[in-house]
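Review form for a predicted model. The reviewer records the input and the model, then writes brief findings.
Reviewer: anonymous (R2)
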Amino acid sequence: MTTEQRRNPADERPPMSILHAVATIPVRAELAEQAAVGLAELAEKTRAEDGCLSYDLYRSAAQPGTFVTIEQWRSAEDLDAHMGTPHVQQAIAEFGAMLTGEIAVHPLTPVSAAE
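Model under review:
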């Protein structure tokens, strides 16, 4: 058996120092297509940021008009810096009238069986 074959799938997990986050972005359902274009552009710019390891944009299948980002950041400071970037501030200003509620950003912490 080679080393490659013996690799434990748990070894594929990212290091614990990586910050995982999700965000929900609720927009008016009738404006969802317009919002999707702008949010996809925002996602592209975000992926180019220093400290952004992963940034994926999804549309909720359960809640029309709700978008969800699943993110990985090098640190909480990088996520904080992201929120202050010109492209995020511009998106908030442009899409503010489309929102049906607050954008909710959820930094995540792992849960273990020992808790």
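Findings: The longest strand covers residues 19-26.
Further findings: Residues 32-47 form the longest helix (16 residues).
Recommendation: see findings above.
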